[in-house]
Amino acid sequence: MVPSHRKPLKERALSKSNQARPVGKKKRHVKASYASEDEDTTFTPEWNDCRRNITDALRCYKKLRKDKGLRDNLSNQHKMNPEQGRCHSLALDGRVANILKVSGKWVNTIKQIGCLPGIKISDEYHWRGELCVIGLHYNFQRGIDYISSVEGKTLATSIVDSYQYDRGIISKYPFPNLTYTGEGENRDQMFEGGNLALKNNIHYKKPVRVIRKYNSDDNANASGYKFVYEGLYRVTKFDKEIESGFSVYKFQLDMLDDHQQYDSKWKQKRIRRH
């Protein structure tokens, strides 16, 4: 759910056009809080247009997820295979995201490193598929998403702390510094895929977007959780440790300064009136 100062939009058919996840044994509540615009700057019309598109895409996502009849109708229109039985969890997220994709509702469709237009720190989302639809994190299941650079090197674009393996991020709130456990369950981790990408981010000094999963205290999601965009972090170093008899990589991440969180091309000076 992208925050807005407007009243909630009335749901309609698709148009054309806390307490945190457990860290160790502790839990905490994180209430909905949204980053406000910088007092001295405001975003460009193009950035705001993208944010409106994101709000619309997420509204459509929510409606589609609840309405199987609407999913079936749009699937038939786009000649998609019929929905098999009752979709649940990630299967349903994937189904909804694919319908929105063929409907032309995806936003930020080019996978890229750094901040994205229309997205603010502390924006909240309720399903994994939403992260894909708005371009924040394209991988439905893996915690590390990455791209291949022009030189053929893999570089990490984003990480999601999903606690799938009771690992992920280790930190205390607030968290300007994070430790992220690499990919690889019940085996020795290798420098491949997402782990290699995070290592390359250190060498090439590329930031990574961080999304964390929290237990939700507002019952906005039947699963009782939400995803929060925490901002851009730089990967500074890694260590190799032993956990449960397997070697794992621990990546150190440091949050970028406020002025580096949003690309200057999306910001313009606020006109002061005296």
TrEMBL record:
Localization, UniProt: Chromosome, Centromere; Nucleus
A GO term, aspect molecular function: double-stranded DNA binding
Pfam families, A to Z: SAD_SRA
Domain of life: Eukaryota
Record-annotated YDG domain positions: 114-255
Keywords recorded for this protein, A-Z: Nucleus
Region (Disordered): 1-37
InterPro entries the UniProt entry points to: H3K9_HMTase_SUVAR3-9, PUA-like_sf, SRA-YDG_sf, SRA_YDG
Principal location listed in the UniProt entry: nucleus
GO cellular component: chromosome, centromeric region; nucleus
PANTHER family on file: HISTONE-LYSINE N-METHYLTRANSFERASE SETMAR, HISTONE-LYSINE N-METHYLTRANSFERASE, H3 LYSINE-9 SPECIFIC SUVH5-LIKE
Protein name per its UniProtKB record: YDG domain-containing protein
Protein species of origin: Gossypium darwinii
Organismal lineage: Eukaryota, Viridiplantae, Streptophyta, Embryophyta, Tracheophyta
